[in-house]
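Review form for a predicted model. The reviewer records the input and the model, then writes brief findings.
Reviewer: anonymous (R2)
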Amino acid sequence: MTNEKLYKVLGDINEKYVKEAKEYRKAKNPLWLKWGAMAACLCFAVFGIFVIQRLGGAPGTTIEQPGNSILAVNEVDHVTRLDMDVQISHYTDLSGDEWETVMEAFEQAVGMSYEKFIKKLPVSYQQTAFYSVDAPTSPKSGEYVPHDYVFEFLTEDDGKVKIVICATAEPLRDCFFVCENPKKSEINGATALIYNVQDSFMVQFSHDNVNYDIDTCNITLEEIENLLTCIVS
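Model under review:
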């Protein structure tokens, strides 16, 4: 889901963060909560909050799609937000050499080129942003390196799609929701978890040793299925 949508669901969020997100400024603004290992102290903190604040969710519902495909959508009533120490690097107005360096780092981290990934997506998508979420190399080190690469798009019908990818662990997340026994969807052999909050969908899955989080707003389930089919091909 978009940052603005998520903030409305959570409530009582500092408007400074919304403004910073809109202006794409580089800041230590928590964006994503990491479920994989980054640092021992951080993992213990996340685990502790997860145990203490375990959320309840409504049972998942299955929605049949054209072509005999079934997407299992898990309805979510509550969302919890956590803070993390991360930075954002926006890759705009770069020189040719700087862009080439970013592209080499992207391919080394993800295992595919930037161009190859973009070609997987629906041709109607209009890209609006490309940046990385950078995590500290160690606690209090002061040095940050890209952990996730993030793409944002607009669709033909003014829908919004954010695709977060990471090959070393699950993407960083600043929010989480829990459903008891969430139902799973399968797209071309890849297992996906799909959550619904208001009019937004959150999709989590892995394919070819790459982990994906996809946030959407004003996107239909048919469009979700088409996007997943394009990526998992």
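Findings: DSSP finds six helices and twelve strands in the chain.
Further findings: The first helix runs from residue 3 to 10.
Recommendation: see findings above.
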